[in-house]
Specification:
Length: 616
């Protein structure tokens, strides 16, 4: 491929074009631009070009640049420049595809202000692939960093001073003498930091870890003899949940890397808006019962971008996906992190949970769907015109095999637990190990498919989410060890009429507060002697904590992901969706109470499935 030294390429977002500016290139040689389209594929760590004239909007992959070379796009200068990596890492544009014009064209097209304004609007901005590790930089970026150096020093000194003050305060004798009050204050302060993380600009994972260590430090000062023993006992339970989540998330990432979920998403073939509503909700409901609700939401909202071009209608469908994902995750032990916590700790069993919670969970979705079908303005259009945007990647080789093996690995976990009596995380790790060996075998010698292997999947899992769970669970376990949760349980028993109301209130609270600490606190508040395995309290907690998060968009990880992907406003969701979600939530509770109080054996799909010997 010929190169040109005519000058750097100026990117004009409004024209979706690169124009060559004459003069000396400050960034090295530039690729010749006669009608070619450029696309950087971060997962292959290379930028590719195609010698043919492609159709507008298509994504192409051909030969790579020379070894160690790449194209870098600098937003402040709007230039593509050819650079050679010095540290083995690639500096590159973040997935943006641009069409180029002839190198002889020396016109700029748009003035700088108009160009910059259009670029900042994000109309053509691409999303960064999870493997992106190097930001686009320029001399202006470094100048800006130098200007902010003083403010950064001030921030660092302030944080260091806060740490020193906190460490000194914990050593004060008052803390040891008033352990309960000190731990309550630290927990409230930490939890406020988690709730208002956007306001304070602190990631909740970091806040959770600091809170956990602080609480256990206070506990050790007040009871140095017992704290170590208590921490080891609590750490064993917390570790089981963390290992389980890591295994499950890695399996899902491997399947997703092979585009295995296309088997599900490509099966949707309808243009009727009401039919599409029910089809999306049903697929999401059952998919979420196997995957976690966060992954299911991301997969389905990504699908909506290909099916529904209208933004308002797509926001509405996305909200339905959130309700369906949370409802679907509530009736299986592996569908939601809260039900997984209850299952691993022995409060619920597999078959009883599926049998008793399937119908309430389904009703919590079905009632909002019925109400939306006949009352929502977003569904007044009879036809939902399908978008012409096609999937960016086809299914990887052996993608179907990986999908079914991954699905089987997830479904095998409850069977492994019932057959061996060993903790569920071992079954999950076994499934991950089998899938790991399989992907290594089928991609043996395929150096260009490294992104399909497990090491790359491990780099894409939500590690900060796992660390957040770790911090929260350790924090709650410290309160449990100090006896604070027992005192809270006594207070609730004295002021609330029964456990049904307690579970309902916890579900409503989960629409505002993260459901993980709520469920963890409930596990410490009530003993297994008072409420044995599969008691109504535990099943209602599983249902309410899972489906209650749909009432507000910020009430669940699925809702937060949808909010970010579709730029949904909090008050739009509150006005358009919350009444439907609340109606479904209360209806599901009513169905569950009817099943149990009246002794009515209402039909449910899991109850009609063949019973696996020893399951549960």
């Amino acid at each position: 491929m010929a190169l040109s030294k005519a000058g750097p390429l100026l990117w004009s977002p409004a024209n979706v074009s690169c124009r060559c500016l004459k003069g000396e290139s400050s960034g090295g040689q530039i690729l010749q631009t006669q009608g070619f389209r450029l696309l950087h594929r971060p997962w292959f760590h290379k930028t590719s070009i195609n010698p043919q004239l492609p159709k507008r909007g298509s994504f192409l992959t051909t030969s790579a640049l020379h070894t160690g070379e790449n194209l870098v796009f600098s937003p402040p200068q709007r230039q593509w420049t050819r650079q050679t990596s010095l540290d083995g890492k690639d500096g590159y544009a973040r997935g943006r595809a641009v069409q180029t014009r002839a190198a002889a064209d020396d016109k700029v097209g748009l003035d700088d202000d108009e160009d910059e304004e259009y670029y900042n609007s994000g109309t053509l901005g691409g999303s960064c692939d999870p493997l992106c590790s190097v930001d686009e930089t320029s001399s202006e970026d470094y100048q800006l960093g130098a200007k902010n150096a003083k403010s950064d020093i001030v921030k660092a000194v302030a944080i260091g001073a806060a740490v020193c003050v906190g460490a000194g305060a914990i050593q004060h004798s008052w803390v040891a003498e008033h352990q309960d009050l000190a731990m309550a204050l630290v927990f409230i302060a930490g939890y406020a930091g988690i709730i208002f993380e956007e306001f304070f600009s602190f990631n909740k994972s970091g806040v959770g870890l600091v809170m956990a260590v602080s609480l256990w430090t206070i506990r050790s000062l007040a009871s140095s003899d017992n704290a170590g023993i208590e921490l080891r006992a609590q750490g064993e339970q917390v570790s089981e949940i963390v290992f389980f989540l890591l295994g499950a998330m890695t399996i899902v990432e491997i399947v997703d890397a092979h585009q295995g979920f296309k088997l599900v998403t490509d099966s949707i073939n309808t243009s009727d808006s009401k039919v599409l509503l029910w089809v999306l909700a049903t697929i999401t409901f059952f998919l979420s019962s196997i995957l976690d609700n966060l992954t299911t939401t991301i997969v389905m909202v990504s699908l909506l971008r290909k099916l529904v071009p209208d933004p308002e209608q797509r926001r509405f469908y996305g909200a339905v996906v959130v309700i369906a994902a949370n409802a679907g995750g509530a009736w299986t032990p592996i569908g939601d992190v809260t039900t997984t916590m209850l299952w691993i700790n022995g409060q619920i069993t597999t078959f009883a949970t599926m049998k008793d919670l399937f119908l309430p969970s389904f009703v919590s979705l079905a009632l909002p769907l019925v109400l939306m079908t006949f009352s929502s303005d977003a569904l007044q259009e009879k036809e939902s015109r399908k978008s012409f945007i096609m999937s960016e990647e086809a299914m990887a080789p052996r993608g179907k095999l990986v999908f079914f093996v991954g699905l089987g690995a997830l479904l095998f976990v409850p069977i492994f637990k019932s057959l061996t009596g060993l903790p569920p995380y071992l079954g999950m790790l076994l499934g991950l190990g089998v899938l790991w060996v399989l992907t290594d075998a089928i991609h043996l010698g395929e150096d260009d498919r490294q992104k399909l292997k497990v090491p790359q999947a491990l780099s894409r899992i939500d590690t900060q989410g796992v660390l957040f769970f770790l911090g929260i669970l350790l924090s709650i376990s410290s309160l449990d060890a100090a006896g604070l949760l027992k005192e809270l349980a006594t207070f609730l028993d004295e002021h609330l009429p029964n456990v049904d109301v307690v579970a309902t209130v916890i579900g409503l609270a989960s629409s505002v507060i993260d459901n993980v600490p709520l469920v963890a606190a409930t596990q410490g508040m009530y003993s297994m002697q008072q409420y044995p395995v599969d008691d109504r309290l535990w099943q209602l907690i599983a249902y309410c904590a899972g489906t209650g998060g749909s009432i507000l968009v910020i009430g669940s990880a699925a809702g937060v992901a949808y909010m970010g992907m579709e730029k949904v406003d909090f008050f739009w969701y509150l006005k358009k969706i919350s009444p439907f979600a609340l109606a479904g939530y209360m209806a599901g509770i009513g169905v569950y109470l009817l099943q149990n109080q009246q002794g009515v054996d209402l039909p449910s799909i899991p109850a009609m499935l063949p019973l696996i010997p020893g399951l549960g």
